[in-house]
Design goal:
The complex is a heterodimer of chains A (about 425) and B (about 190). Chain A has helices spanning about 10-20, 25-30, 45-65, 75-85, 90-115, 125-145, 150-165, 170-180, 185-220, 235-260, 290-300, 315-340, 350-370, 380-405, 415-425; strands at about 35, 235, 305, 315. By secondary structure, chain A is mainly alpha-helical. In chain A, the strands form 2 sheets. In chain A, strands 1-2 form a two-stranded antiparallel ribbon. Chain A has a two-stranded antiparallel ribbon with strand order 3-4. Chain B has 2 domains: about 1-45; about 50-185, Rieske Iron-sulfur Protein, CATH 2.102.10. In chain B, about 25% of the residues lie in helices and about 20% in strands. The longest helix of chain B is centred in the N-terminal third of the chain and has 26 residues, at about 20-45. The structure holds protoporphyrin IX containing FE (HEM) and FE2/S2 (inorganic) cluster.
Amino acid sequence: MGSGNRKKLDNPALEWLDSRLPIVSMIQKEYGVFPTPKNFNYFWNFGAIAMVMLVTMIITGIVLAMNYATTASDAFDSVERIMRDVNHGWLLRYLHSNGASFFFIAVYIHMFRGMYYGSYKQPRELLWMMGVLIFLLMMATAFMGYVLPWGQMSFWGATVITNLFSAIPLVGDSIVTLLWGGFSVDNPTLNRFFALHYLFPFLIVAVVFLHVWALHVTGSNNPSGIEAKGKQDTLPFHPYYTMKDAFGIVVFLVIYATFVFFLPNALGHADNYIPANPLVTPAHIVPEWYFLPFYAILRAITFDIGIPFTDIVLIPAKLGGVLAMFGSIALLFVLPFLDKHPVRSSRYRPWYKWFFIAFTVNAFILGVCGGKPAEGIWVPLAQASTLYYFAFFMVIIPFLNKKEPVLELPGSISESVLNKKGAKA
Amino acid sequence: MSEDDTKDNKQGHEDGETRRDFLYLTAAAFGAVGAASFAWPLIDQMNPAADTLALSSTEVDLAPIEEGQSITVMWRGKPVFVRHRTAKEIEEAKAVDLTVLRDKQADSDRVQEGKEKWLVMVGICTHLGCVPAGQKDTDVKGDYDGWFCPCHGSHYDSSGRIRKGPAPTNLEIPEYTFLSDTLIKIG
Ligand code: HEM
Ligand code: FES
């Protein structure tokens, strides 16, 4: 972070600052002239969009916290007061609750982009893994945030999810008591969830910083998956990508605002407008939409895994479901080490491309299954989809490592862009 | 580093270990123990506090509960089901062949001797913690004339034992004592 061979700035005030703390030079280097592949498509907008959503969540969250009461007896009423009495409170809350959904939309697209174009491959493994860490922290943050309004879904969602830990052999029940700070989800649970819900977004900011730092060491991947080889392959980040990102952000924010103003509860659940009642469980508990695929995996394990033809159970169904759910995220984490195929982009991987498109469709099917009651056709469908999810990482990708033919790669980014233009003409 | 230090490092024991290595290791070990003993209060503060633990017993008057009726009381923030069972329910519960049960427990192990008509259980599904239906006459009671958990479909029988669905164990029986014929203390 030293000043290195810093260029003198013309503005004397900035120069005074920059010669003491070279922050202006740094911004210029990382966001001004930073050489960026010239062939980005719109999938490359979602990192910047996710960053905007993170900032939006923090700002709206802090002002909500100024009006929110962190006790089980008052939390629900304080959120209703935000909705009815606090000036613009309805707007702040709808921005925050819908913001969580749109943050996840941006991050999911960002992740699928990474998987389609092989952005997780050498030398960007660590960059990808920090991304998965951000995703985990986001899930924890959103889960705890959803508990704060202390409605029926808040309460029972918290109950069901914290109870997952009771599946851990021997220490499970002690862990659950530790999480609750009592014998059920109650006031102490709400208090600590609020404290952590306030903290975690700032941890996310820290990991995002490392994520972007690592990105600026390796440089960005691009739709061709070929490394930039020189000036002819790149553009300075500003003004080319500041403009393209700004455009994408505006389009995204228009859709977000449409939900905030016209469909503010479309992504939520009506039962969360009923105050939490520890004595009555709603007939149908569902998590927020962004958790549904993982919830489907959790519920897909309805059978004990044991030694065949004996009564011995090695992994009871409940533990099996929990392991499968956490395993599904762990697989994302180690993806860079599972996929050893030398080609990055799906454009030049004729087989992986279709298996990955199937993986994406499968993720949607899992999401639908997770939202339905666990009965009838939904159970075997969720099981088949769970099987494909795991097979994709553990069977298909290792198989493709050795067997998949490679399409001829263009010589450079420049060439790939020119060829495409040439073919069209 | 002074010249002496470097010498000290180089002229260690024959096996290459120096006094400095030993000091590093002991310092690190003390540091680790110190950090761990400071971490414990930070973690343990999350466990139930003294006042939470102090709330942990509840008395229930059984006199107003008619045969075939159930009530739900709060104990440690959880619902407890107290059911005055009918003769039919007791018969059904006793008649079950234990080998068909997932969590093998006789009805007599789930009630107190001579008080078979009183079934006292924590009303929390042992799967993931929902409250099963079946306390009201109008509730769905599942396939075994007991309770049914709507969350993921667990069926419990008239003794609160798991019969079908994902829950691993029977509904928990809390510790309770009869203070008199019509008064129990839970916890
Ligand atoms: C990673 C960023 C964040 C995510 C994904 C997130 C997510 C959520 C979600 C899903 C809710 C429930 C909304 C509802 O249904 O009402 C919520 C509520 C809340 N969040 Fe956040 N949040 C984030 C950052 C923050 C920050 C930095 C604060 C600052 C303290 C905050 C404060 C609150 C408060 C006070 C509530 C309760 C009021 C309400 O329910 O609207 N959040 N959050
Ligand atoms: S919580 Fe009762 S069946 Fe899952």
